[in-house]
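Batch manifest line 141
LIGAND: copper (II) ion
JOB: complex structure
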Amino acid sequence: MWRCAVVVLIGALALVGCTKLPPEVAVNDQVPADQRTESEPAGGGGSEGAGGGNEPVWVAVDIDFESAPSQLPAGDTEVTLTNNGAIEHNVVFDDLGAEPVVVAGPGETQTGQVQLEPGTYRYHCSVPGHEPMMNGEVTVE
Ligand SMILES: [Cu+2]
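JOB STATUS: finished
ARTIFACT:
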């Protein structure tokens, strides 16, 4: 209150800054927190319900990963790539070298083996030109 009163005396511009800032800060601090607690169960339920089986599946289209696992179990894991596109796609884990973990041609579903330690891994499709659209991160635990 003291600062506001002083600023009001200084000038109209400062007054705008003083009256405008506190409500913005309050909204930014409170509204997202309230919305998160309400929207989290709806958003998290879908992925958790689909992940019942221990079968990590990437689904590729031209040119995007239509769906991809957000989590993988540590250790030896079989991963599946379903390619619903008309051109070849693959999954490369950036930290495991340039060799794809799994490659699938048009209309194919292929499986591959990957060994991962706990951590966060970036993956992408290494077919030339695909990486900007076909990439993501997966958490291994
Ligand atoms: Cu691709």
